[in-house]
């Protein structure tokens, strides 16, 4: 099996599984319990907070553990908007955000009455900073822009954007969805004036149901989940200790090996692009060079529906994602692909290949070989 | 309130002649099958023109019982019944008063008591029982009023070895018990129509088999799972369904290569009918069922239906033929298949569909086009039949 769907989810790494098993089997106490058993459990969380705060170069108290990316994004947007709503009514985001940002934003618009603007992106999927400058208003209170796009892997200039946002209004919250970027590049919230940053564990070889949100200690966010006051009252509920421990181990491994992982994945990506670009009908979206994220390749094949390509590859043991889940019954065209102005015919013909450091050049070669074989065949039977 | 029995009412079977017992026995069998999956023990008894289900266990799942019975064709109404021992008329009247008190929170209605005396040794006649119970009810609940012509509620009191009391009728699905008609082969796709068509034909007592055509990799494993799920939902009514899953890819690609593109869907459907008929005969079916409706899509115009129908030797039942889409959707919502049907997976009828498919194909032309397939098609059909996977789907 060749697994090229690492932006959907990754295999949990052995090191994370080991610490999780230990936490599940032996140190299963409730961190809130007063006895020693509870304390041991609490130590996992303390360690995790320390590890992650080191990576982000922030304080430990700025890290709050969540159940994953969706919860983090909901907290950042709804909890953030709730805290600043008296100061203004204007939110800026992009048309290429993940559904876990886009839908909370829709909620803020429809149910909370916020005014929303979307910054356009260029054909490579990168936010137009000049356009953002024009959209900023005195009453702009929240800006949410992702670090790395999940469909094409475009990297957003968050440092530049952060500066711009804060120079317009120092009190405006800046949220960055770093779910596809964390573990693939250095990200220091302070350097980019980021107030809220969200991360998911299972995208970086940690367990599903794990994640965290960084909240700048100078800003206020209204918690969404109330209860026993865990996570400094920001996210009540008994801590998912094994998941938190696994998340920290996985994060540390990502950053201990960041350079070699990045180089390796760029090697895979560049090799793929070089070999695949010559296939008739195939095109690649986003920047082709290393200004794009190392792990994501958006591939369009003219005349072949994404679902068909996906299943044909699956038949050969290669697992990828459909760039946009679409079907004749219920068209759900990708907002991202639309936003980059992709040819209409290709919207439904785009798949995503996403790597992890464990993938090999050999696997890429096999994939290229299969693509060379099946694309002419599939194009022959395309819808006329 | 705890009901110790259910009286089952059926309508159409009642008008049957000498073979009435065939229908009643089938209904008893279907009720037993449905109650098999419900927590509790039940006895199903055929009794002077009705079916009576008595609860034999201490406790049982009432909601699940009603749900199971509402999926048995042939049942028109389910009456939850309270049973008390025969300990004289006073006790009987008290029991009815208690029953009415518990069954109706608001008793501001007109009513009529129906007496029925199966135990002819009982000292009162049916009329006397009804009149006296009515009088006692009026005494106990002054807000109730008698109206013997158009009562809002009817309260039934039946004197047998025990006393049975019931008032509410929960509607059943009606129709005829499955197993009283014959067997037919449903062409099941992942859409809204075909599960409804299967439901409707089965409602007339017909046992179902089904055939599904998939086209991997053009259709996904999930599309196949969706069809299995749909068959499962239909089988809640129809009983177990043998589902044949035919790999249609090579046939489809071959037609695509050899025939005019606008004729692709018609020719494809003709081969689907042929293959479905093969399995129909194998399964002992004496008819085919489709969810077609005149003019819904290009392949369902009268001209197209004429072309697809021509390859079949068995009768093709099309219960939705004159239905509007919304009427079909309404039924699919009622039988709980709608949510599954609208899951967005590609089915094999749409993948190669032409932008402008023929809407008025001529049979002679289509038959001529099929000549282009002569070289390989029989072999491909044979392979498709040989590699078909058959599973029994049961709710």
Please name the defining characteristics of this protein.
heterodimer, A: 384 residues, alpha/beta, Aspartate Aminotransferase, domain 2, Aspartate Aminotransferase, domain 1, 2 domains, seven-stranded mixed β-sheet, four-stranded antiparallel β-sheet, 12 helices, 13 strands, 40% helix, 14% strand, globular, B: 395 residues, VC0802-like, Rossmann fold, nine-stranded mixed β-sheet, six-stranded mixed β-sheet, 38% helix, elongated
In short, what is this structure?
The complex is a heterodimer of chains A (384) and B (395). Chain A has 384 residues and is an alpha/beta fold.
Walk me through the structure.
The complex is a heterodimer of chains A (384) and B (395). With 384 residues, chain A is an alpha/beta fold. Chain A has two domains: 14-256, Aspartate Aminotransferase, domain 2, CATH 3.40.640.10; 258-380, Aspartate Aminotransferase, domain 1 (Alpha-Beta Complex). Chain A is 40% helix and 14% strand. Chain A has helices spanning 14-25, 36-56, 69-84, 99-110, 129-135, 158-168, 241-256, 258-276, 306-315, 335-339, 344-347, 361-380, and strands at 2-3, 63-66, 90-93, 115-118, 140-144, 173-177, 196-200, 211-215, 282-285, 296-301, 318-319, 321-322, 350-354. Chain A has a seven-stranded mixed sheet with strand order 2-8-7-6-5-3-4, sandwiched between helices. Chain A has a four-stranded antiparallel sheet with strand order 9-10-13-12, with helices on one face. Chain A has a two-stranded parallel sheet with strand order 1-11. In chain A, strand 5, helix 6 and strand 6 form a beta-alpha-beta unit. In chain A, 49% of the residues are buried. Residues 325-330 of chain A have low confidence and may be disordered. Chain B has 395 residues and is α/β, with parallel strands linked by helices. Chain B has two domains: 5-171, VC0802-like (2-Layer Sandwich), CATH 3.30.2130.30; 182-393, HUPs (Rossmann fold, 3-Layer(aba) Sandwich), CATH 3.40.50.620. Helix content of chain B is 38%, strand content 21%. Chain B has 13 helices and 15 strands. In chain B, the strands form two sheets. In chain B, strands 1, 2, 3, 4, 5, 6, 7, 8 and 9 form a nine-stranded mixed sheet that branches. The mean pLDDT of chain B is 92. At the A-B interface, helix 9 of A face loops of B.
């Amino acid at each position: 099996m060749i697994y090229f769907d690492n932006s959907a989810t990754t295999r949990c790494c052995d090191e994370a599984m080991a610490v999780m098993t230990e936490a599940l089997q032996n140190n299963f106490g409730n961190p809130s319990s007063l006895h020693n058993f509870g304390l041991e459990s609490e130590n996992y969380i303390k360690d995790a907070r320390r590890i992650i705060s080191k990576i982000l170069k922030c304080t430990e108290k700025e890290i709050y553990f969540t159940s994953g990316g969706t919860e983090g994004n909901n907290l950042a947007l709804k909890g953030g908007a709730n805290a600043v709503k008296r100061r203004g009514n204007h939110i800026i985001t992009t048309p290429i955000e993940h559904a876990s940002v886009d839908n909370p934003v829709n909620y803020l618009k429809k149910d909370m009455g916020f005014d929303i603007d979307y910054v356009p992106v260029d054909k490579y999927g990168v936010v137009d900073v000049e356009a953002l400058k024009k959209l900023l208003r005195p009453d702009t209170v929240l800006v949410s822009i992702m670090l790395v796009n999940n469909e094409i892997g475009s990297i957003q200039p968050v440092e530049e954007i952060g500066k711009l946002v804060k120079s317009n209004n120092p009190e405006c919250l800046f949220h960055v969805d770093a779910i596809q970027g964390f573990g693939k590049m250095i990200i220091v919230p302070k350097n980019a004036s980021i107030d809220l940053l969200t991360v998911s564990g299972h995208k970086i070889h940690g367990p599903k149901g794990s994640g965290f949100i960084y909240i700048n200690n100078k800003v206020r966010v209204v918690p969404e989940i109330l209860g026993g006051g865990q996570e400094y009252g920001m996210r009540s509920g008994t801590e998912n200790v094994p998941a938190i421990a696994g998340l920290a181990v996985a994060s540390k491994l990502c950053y201990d090996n960041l350079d070699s992982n990045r180089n390796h994945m760029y090697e895979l990506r560049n090799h793929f692009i070089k070999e695949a670009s010559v296939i008739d009908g195939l095109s690649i979206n986003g920047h082709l060079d290393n200004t794009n994220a190392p792990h994501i390749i958006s591939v369009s094949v003219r005349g072949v529906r994404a679902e068909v390509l996906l299943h044909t590859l699956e038949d050969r043991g290669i697992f990828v994602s459909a760039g946009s889940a679409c079907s004749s019954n219920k068209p759900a065209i990708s907002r991202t692909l639309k936003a980059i102005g992709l040819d209409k015919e290709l919207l439904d013909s785009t798949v995503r290949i996403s790597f992890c450091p464990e993938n090999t050049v050999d696997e890429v070669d096999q994939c290229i070989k299969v693509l060379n074989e099946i694309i002419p065949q599939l194009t022959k039977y395309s819808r006329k | 309130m705890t009901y110790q029995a259910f009286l089952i009412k059926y309508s159409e079977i009642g008008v049957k002649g000498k073979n009435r017992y065939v229908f009643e026995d089938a209904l008893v069998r279907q009720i037993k099958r449905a109650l098999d999956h419900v927590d509790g023990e039940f006895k199903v008894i055929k009794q002077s023109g009705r079916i009576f289900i008595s609860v034999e266990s201490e406790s049982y799942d009432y909601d699940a019982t009603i749900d199971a019975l509402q999926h048995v064709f042939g049942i028109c109404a389910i009456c939850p019944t309270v049973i008390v021992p025969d300990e004289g008329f006073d006790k009987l009247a008290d029991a009815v008063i208690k029953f009415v008190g518990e069954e109706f929170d608001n008793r501001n209605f007109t009513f009529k008591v129906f007496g029925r005396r199966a135990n002819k040794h009982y000292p009162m006649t049916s009329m006397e029982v009804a009149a006296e119970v009515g009088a006692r009810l009026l005494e106990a609940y002054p807000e109730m009023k008698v109206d013997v012509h158009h009562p809002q509620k009817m309260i039934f009191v039946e004197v047998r070895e025990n006393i049975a009391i019931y008032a509410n009728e929960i509607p059943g699905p009606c129709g005829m018990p499955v197993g009283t008609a014959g067997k037919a082969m449903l062409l099941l796709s992942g859409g809204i129509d075909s599960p409804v068509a299967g439901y409707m034909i089965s409602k007339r007592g017909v046992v179902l088999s089904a055939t599904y055509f998939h086209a991997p990799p053009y259709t996904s494993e999930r599309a196949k799972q969706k069809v299995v799920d749909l068959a499962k939902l239909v089988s809640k009514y129809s009983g177990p369904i043998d589902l044949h899953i035919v790999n249609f890819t090579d046939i489809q690609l071959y037609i695509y290569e050899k025939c005019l593109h606008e004729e692709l869907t018609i020719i494809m459907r003709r081969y689907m009918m042929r293959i479905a008929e093969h399995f129909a005969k194998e399964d002992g079916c004496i008819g085919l069922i489709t969810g077609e409706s005149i003019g819904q899509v290009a392949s369902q115009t009268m001209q197209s239906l004429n072309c697809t129908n021509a390859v079949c030797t068995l009768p093709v039942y099309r219960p939705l033929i004159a239905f509007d889409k919304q009427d079909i959707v309404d039924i699919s919502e009622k039988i709980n298949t709608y949510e599954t049907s609208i899951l967005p997976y590609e089915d094999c009828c749409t993948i190669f569909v032409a932008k402008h498919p023929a809407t008025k194909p001529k049979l002679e032309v289509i038959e001529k086009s099929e000549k282009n397939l002569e070289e390989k098609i029989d072999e491909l059909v044979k392979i498709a039949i040989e590699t078909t996977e058959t599973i029994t789907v049961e709710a």
